[in-house]
Write a structure and sequence with these properties.
The complex is a heterodimer of chains A (351) and B (142). By secondary structure, chain A is α+β, with helices and mostly antiparallel strands. Chain A folds into two domains: 296 residues, no CATH class; 43 residues. In chain A, 23% of the residues lie in helices and 28% in strands. Chain A has a seven-stranded mixed beta sheet, covered by helices on one side. Chain A has a five-stranded antiparallel beta sheet with strand order 1-4-8-7-6. In chain A, helix 2 packs across helix 3. The radius of gyration of chain A is 26 Å and the shape is elongated. By secondary structure, chain B is of the alpha+beta class. Chain B has three helices and nine strands, in the order αβββββαβββαβ. A five-stranded mixed beta sheet of chain B has the order 3-9-8-5-6, with helices on one face. A four-stranded mixed beta sheet of chain B has the order 2-1-4-7, with no helix packed on it. The N and C termini of chain B lie far apart (61 Å). In chain B, 28% of the residues are buried. The model of chain B has no long low-confidence stretch (mean pLDDT 84). The chains are: A alpha+beta (351), B alpha+beta (142).
Chain lengths: 351, 142
């Protein structure tokens, strides 16, 4: 199957691409290892029996040395392993997707975080980190990577909800030594026990400017039709391309792939196409797979856990309330004055 | 009786509006930057705060640069020619000169600059993508 299907779909999942090399304090963007680009990303986020199975693939277009990406996770993974050979391709074929478009490079770095797990998959060195944005940033710096300017805010956005990150460092030299050609992807399967799944979307815009476009496909496989937040309206950069009972042939094919024996006997397949300008992606995709229909605003990144209101916000609230009261009192005064005038004129004796 | 009540409501409403307007002006108005010989600039989420400073001409000004971000930044102050040189430059880490400072992640640096002429200079971080992201400030020298 792998041979029949083009590997062009790629995807460094939710990648925050990292480029190693000496830090340039001037305008030079990339170190001597050269530019590395990530293409369109394709991801499966499946949820069954309280476990999220997150399958994505990392691929590079060129360059030497090391590069990588970082992916926020909803919880601590119980397992990170090589993904199946055809899971993502089979999903793409199921929904007959458009031709992949380009997604460009970024860089990252971090240090000071707690390392929960390290795994080597082909030419990928994967590290699961626990820590706040500063910790992860420090870890990346210590490992020779550099983050784009929006990284502090984006990492904080994730760390407030789940301080778990997966850093995947792609060793391009090792890939060459393995005869991996440019364009080959390395699938990775992350198993994450979690009460409800969510898919990081905002990270796709990391390092991009207002004019940049983001294309990605997110497949969801759940026991029931999921409730999603935000609703993929198309206008918000997310489009619902497929939502139907998963076919038996799809489920059978997926189940026969490596590490995919958990695929249930029936399920619901959803395909979300991310087709957005970078600034549109200010949210994540929260999923209520329980059938209750209540996806979490916090998991969608639309509300903060225990959000504290700062002093200026309080001041604005108080000023707004006083203003509203003042306007209301004025309106009452004007109405009463009008009533008094008409009452007085009606009492005036007529000629 | 009705007129008296109306006047009372009218008066109370006007007082409330005046209070709100005054408080809003105090709370929301942008204060004019005082000219000072000691300035602290914080860097948070890849932005300078304040993004406008006012400093005196001809005397040493101590500038403290506090980087709250987990990534490196730089603070380069100068005229258009200086900024353009760094915008297109490829040199590695800048040597420490008072007007060109690299501030490592989560660190603080202090520099002392004497501005020779009155006018306005920009301070910019020229690490890749940072200027476009908004890491730009203006120093008024007077």
């Amino acid at each position: 199957m792998r041979r029949r299907l083009p590997a062009a779909f790629l995807g460094a999942g939710l990648a925050l691409l990292v480029v190693a090399g000496p830090t340039l304090a001037c305008g030079g963007l990339i170190g001597p290892n050269g530019a590395v680009n990530l293409l369109r990303t394709t991801t499966l986020a499946a949820y069954h029996e309280g476990v999220e199975h997150y399958v994505t693939a990392f691929q590079f277009q060129g360059g030497g040395g090391a590069f990588g990406s970082i992916t926020p996770l909803p919880g601590v993974p119980s397992k990170v392993e090589k993904g199946g050979d055809w899971t993502l391709q089979r999903l793409i074929r199921e929904t007959n997707p458009p031709v992949p478009a380009a997604l460009d490079a970024v860089r990252f770095e971090a240090a000071g975080a707690q390392v929960l797990m390290t795994v080597r998959i082909d030419a990928l060195d994967i590290t699961v980190l626990k820590g706040g944005s500063a910790d992860v940033g420090q870890w990346a710096a210590d490992h020779g990577f550099r983050l784009p300017p929006d990284a502090p805010e984006v990492l904080e956005f994730y760390a407030q909800r789940s301080p778990i990150f997966l850093a995947a460092v792609f060793d391009a030299d090792a890939a060459k030594a393995r005869d991996q050609a440019i364009g080959d992807g390395t699938p990775v399967h992350i198993t994450i026990p979690t009460p409800n799944p969510w898919v990081p979307i905002r990270i796709l815009a990391l390092g991009k400017t207002g004019a940049d476009h983001v294309d990605a496909d997110v497949y969801l496989l759940t026991d029931h039709a999921p409730a999603l937040l935000p609703n993929p309206t198309g206008a918000n950069g997310m489009r619902l391309d497929n939502s139907q009972q998963a076919s038996q042939s799809l489920l059978d094919d997926l189940r026969s792939d490596r590490g995919m024996e958990w695929v249930p006997s029936d399920g619901w397949l959803t395909k979300i196409a991310i087709d957005a300008n970078a600034p549109q992606l200010s949210y994540d995709l929260a999923i209520d797979a329980s059938g209750m229909g209540v996806p979490s605003w916090v998991q969608a990144g639309l509300a903060l856990p225990n959000r504290a209101i700062d002093q200026l916000t309080w001041l604005r609230v108080v000023l707004g309330a006083v203003l509203a009261i003042g306007v209301l009192m004025l309106a009452v005064a004007i109405a009463r004055a009008g009533a008094a005038r008409s009452s007085a004129s009606s009492l005036t004796p007529q000629g | 009786m009705l007129r008296t009540r109306a006047r009372l409501f009218l008066g109370a409403g006007l007082v409330a509006l005046v209070l709100v307007a005054g408080a809003a002006v105090v709370a929301l108005a942008r204060p004019t930057q005082p000219v000072t010989t000691a300035v602290t600039i914080e860097i948070h989420y890849s932005h300078f705060n304040p993004s406008e400073i006012a400093v005196p001409v001809g005397v040493p000004v101590t500038i403290t640069l506090r980087n709250d971000d987990p990534i490196d930044h730089e603070w380069i102050i100068g005229d258009d020619a200086v900024q353009q040189k760094h915008r297109t430059g490829t040199e590695l880490l800048h040597p420490s000169i008072p007007t060109e400072v690299v501030i490592a992640a989560l660190s603080t640096r202090t520099t002392v600059v004497t501005f020779a002429q009155a006018g306005q200079l920009k301070y910019i971080c020229h690490l890749p993508g940072h200027e476009a992201y908004g890491m730009v400030g203006v120093a008024t020298i007077r």
